[in-house]
Amino acid sequence: MTWSAAPAPLSDAEFAFRRGSLLTVLGAVLVVCLITLSVQAHWHFSFNDQLMLMLLGVKNAALFTWLWRSPGAFRLVGLIELAIQAATVLIRLYILLHTAPGYHGLGGYAVWMIFAYIVAFIVLPARQALIFSGGVFAALLGIIAAYALDPATDPVMRVGLGNPLLQTTLMHATFIALLGWQQHLHGQFVRALFTARREATLAHLDDLTGLPNRRQLGRWLAGGLETGEPLSVILLDLDHFKRVNDTYGHDVGDDVLRHVAGLLRRSVRSGDQVGRWGGEEFLMLVRGDLGAAQTVAQRLRAQLDGAPHRQAGSVTVSCGIAPARSGEAAHELLRRADEALYAAKRAGRDAVEIAA
């Protein structure tokens, strides 16, 4: 495993989750520092304890503000916090084991040591977080082993701290394993969710053209009619498409459909929808009255005329336009558009007809 200077970019959702988590950690520790300092007069904290709490509060306030105002600095802020956390864990443990015992020993401090692992799994990808956490844990074990094996260590202190040190190491190992397993399950969940969403999306797309299919268009049409706002439909059919298949083959015919779909996708206005209705028929849902739909249809015909297919040549369409009537059902609106389409076919094709 090698460390990557530029990890794979996070999705918007994952980035928001990780940034929010890091802000929560920084903010929570800042609040704890402020509360602790506010009661220190009653508990008679040492000067060193007060100084460390003040420095910790200032550091967290600075990093919190930086990350809040500059979301793009997430990784840099996270790595700075991670480096400080890891160094603090190891240095503080060494100092505690090599100074005269006080009232607190390892008790209060041991709980805060695990924050280094939490930050690692927030900031780093799962595998890198495991490697980093394992390195911190190995260094922690090295400090404890050196303390236990040092002939200069007070035998009474070695025995007295034996149980707290054992519990601390077991807690750290358990916490790393828990975070690693949680990340593994989270990754499985995200992949399953992505697959489910992709399958749900594909269920509403046409396989050949990539445009929304008849099912999705039907849902959009029903929703548009419910709003009561002006809505028109354009049902269009490729002219002489059977001739294309007979002359050039079905592969070219499929490519013509994709060619037209691409033009439709690029020409659709914001707020309008377009999809494949079936065969060589496409349906456009135009937010607007008859005039708006006529403009869209004429623009589409002009674009098709200016972009012939590389093998089949010029592609024309016949269009039937039907503006929705107040209270009209979807099937009635589509029936009128279909009648207008066939009127355009009877008029010689490459034409636009308006529904009665």
Structural features, described:
The chain crosses the membrane at residues 20-39, 51-68, 74-94, 106-124, 130-149, 161-181. It holds the Pfam family GGDEF. This protein has helices spanning 12-43, 47-69, 74-97, 107-113, 115-123, 126-149, 155-160, 162-202, 214-227, 241-248, 250-267, 290-305, 330-346, and strands at residues 232-238, 273-278, 281-286, 317-323, 352-354. With 356 residues, the chain is of the alpha+beta class. It has 2 domains: 12-201, no CATH class; 214-354, Reverse transcriptase/Diguanylate cyclase domain (Alpha-Beta Plaits, 2-Layer Sandwich), CATH 3.30.70.270. The protein has a 5-stranded mixed β-sheet, with helices on both faces. The protein is elongated.
List keywords for this structure.
356 residues; alpha+beta; Alpha-Beta Plaits; 2 domains; 5 strands; elongated; transmembrane; transmembrane helix; GGDEF_dom
Would you summarize the structure shown here?
With 356 residues, this protein is of the alpha+beta class. Helices cover 67% and strands 8% of the residues.
Pattern of helices and strands: HHHHHHHHHEHHEEHEHE
State the separation between the terminal residues, measured CA to CA: 70 Å
Which residues sit in consecutive blocks of at least 5 with pLDDT less than 50? 1-6
Mean pLDDT: 85
How many distinct helices?
13
Based on Cα principal axes, name the global outline. elongated
Largest sheet: 5 strands, mixed
Radius of gyration: 34 Å
Task: Please give the domain count.
Answer: 2
Strand tally, please? 5
**Structural class by helix and strand composition:** alpha+beta
How much of the residues is beta strand, in percent? Answer: 5-15%
